[in-house]
Amino acid sequence: MASIHPTALVDPQARLAEGVSVGPYTVIGPNVEIGEGTTIGAHAVIEGHTTIGRDNRIFQFASLGADPQDKKYAGEPTRLVIGNGNTIREFTTFNTGTVQDKGVTQIGDDNWIMAYVHVAHDCVIGSHNVIANSVQFAGHVTVGDFTLIGGISGIHQFVRIGDFAMLGFQTRLSQDLPPFVVAAGNPAEAQNVHQEGPRRRGYSPERLSLLKQMYKLLYRKGLTLAASVDEITALKATPEAQVDGALGDIDKMLAFLADAQRGIVR
Q1: Catalytic annotation on 163?
Q2: What pLDDT band is residue 261 in, cutting at 50, 70 and 90?
Q3: Can you give the pTM of this predicted structure?
């Protein structure tokens, strides 16, 4: 059975799995589903059409599943979907999607999301990300996996952030940030290649060297984006690209650049 504090208000239609713990004065609405082992602190509000997976830690005063902050929203049954094993800290606000986009805001697995983070409508946040205090995601933002996003940063609507990208403290990001790139500033500018995160995930020296080469072709050679894409494609024939996973890194970068509708950070 779920463990529900006597002061919590849980709608009878809400579906709480085995081992869910609900703290004092928390409010859970009728269209909420929460997976096994998830714990919810005091004074949280979980509403809307919200699905939360297993083994999440949701701290006090979180607001999950509220209506999107979009004037076009007219009460449609859009959704918020949260995966497994996430840590969601105090005063976070995650809104549901809109029918103008996919209709769902989505959070993956094993994310560490610190206090006061706002995830607006129709965002897609991947897995294994660290998102520091007071980061603000506007609507329709897409974030990959294994990113590090510094505190008090603002991300413009429709921006994409690639896998293993890193955003510095107090950064304003209004263009796409490619995989494996560190950016900072107001507005954001590329600073370096992000190697420490991949190294911790077991990347070999050859793969790390390849990441550095891709970064140089994008940011240090003075090439146009089209020319950079051609040079990065040519890296597939190099010895570094033949190690396990390296070709996938190149393909990841090329796929991201091919879809750079807002342009990339320069």
Answers
A1: no
A2: confident
A3: 0.96
